[in-house]
Amino acid sequence: MTILAFFLWSLAKVAVVTVVMLMGIAYTVLLERKLVGRIQNRWGPSRVGPFGLLQPLVDGAKSFLKEDLIPTAVYRPLYLLAPIISLGCALIAIAVIPFGAPGMGPHGFDLFEISNINVGLLVILGITSIGVYGIALAGWSSNNKYSLLGSLRSSAQLISYELALGLSLVGVVLRAGSLNLRTIVEQQSAYGFFSWNIFGGGQTLAFFIYLMAAFAETNRSPFDLPEAESELTGGYHTEYSSMKFAMFFMAEYGNMINVGCVATLLFLGGWTNPFGEMHLQSTLINVMMPLVWFVLKVLLFLCLYVWVRGTLPRFRYDQLMNFGWRYLLPLAILNIVATSLWLAWR
Amino acid sequence: MHLILFFLFAGFCLAGAINLLLQTHPINSALSLIVVMTSLAVLYLLLGAEFLAIAQIIVYSGAVMVLFTFVVMLLNAGREERTLGSRAAARVGFPAVVVIFAVLATIVLHMQGIGSAHFGQGLSNAPGQSNLELLSQVLFHELLLPFEVTSVLILIAILGAVALAHVEGSKIPESGRTAEK
Predict the structure, then answer these.
(1) N or C: which terminus of chain A carries fewer CB neighbours within 10 A?
(2) Mean pLDDT score of chain B, rounded to an integer?
(3) What residue spans define the domains of chain A?
(4) Distance to chain A for B102, nearest Cα, Å
(5) Omega of the bond leading into A274 within 30 degrees of 0 (cis)
């Protein structure tokens, strides 16, 4: 495969994945509004299109057409940079996530992953740690005390829970012996869901630690302190309007999707069939089924997100910090020790 | 290709470093430092040290610099002022930097064995062996004792910081205790 062909294929993959990701973000918002609506015994958006399916498009048009207000006292360069960092980091992380069976394109080219990196998991963690700047800078540059308080809360929360999040993944990495996301998935593919890390792999505790840390990492309820409207009006994005606010909003949902993808890859067997290998005659089905399983698993995870948001009340700030440092972190370390001992004695 | 990327990111790195010195507002300096760190990570990546590159981003660009920006935000530090001392430091500093850089460059160029990595090549000689494995071999076999001693040292430093931040004799209520973190 020549360099030009490689470049063109990669460009096509990036374009397709970006469009799918943006549509995914838009429809995750709709999914959330519909599901929360049903949880609260109302319909949710139902007027635009059949079942309200065109609602995201109308919402997008609305945020484009709104007046873009920039308050006079803000520090302009950083105020403008912050939403770009947020959304950029949310969209970049998808680049290392494999969402289908390996090597489906011509010449064994990976059709279902933008780039196969042997430290893929660390790349995702690295991008997440850069994403903190979007929120931190947004709060500071807005020159508003509520924004600053919100962003301080958020950054403290992100840094605290990043530890538990990273440590909860170590058990999985130990079992797979690799940081490559494809290797981690293939290691769980032997016996359907019995060999998934969450069940047969014995990483159940790690999964729940990851789940809780991930809720905190994406600023979602019950850990949505940074935008607690009863205390901070809107948190770090109080001073943002129009498309800049929409960028923060999209970044939040993009991060939700990323977290769902990582959980699927590390704990739920990625694109593999939960009922074991099935080899059918049709090539098309063999290509599409992994994709379908992957999307289904991520969708399941997103529904869990919405379910939790619809049912659980918000934590208090000191409870949040206590929980992260006193319970999640020691439990994650315990999980690492237990996994290492098991692997050493096996 | 590697050469183009090298010059691009070396340029970013230098521009960030110069901007860091020229900016008068601390937050701009901190952000320039992030640019420097991240460009360095790309240079590591070009040399085939992918683990080191990502560790650089997670540890330096992510964790350390977030704390820097935190401090700048919390202290609400204003613009720097040019004083007599800072002008004098600039006069003496630039020649001193040139001298140190020259000495370092001479030493590095004359030493054998340093700078043996090449663009686009892995650090390991054995094919299929990632440098993560090589690194853990070195850290957990050959340098196990220093590694563990360092981790104990860091633990002691953390405990020391907590002890210093903890005001003697003050009963911290349950809700305020999180501030120690």
Answers:
(1) C
(2) 78
(3) 70-345
(4) 34
(5) no
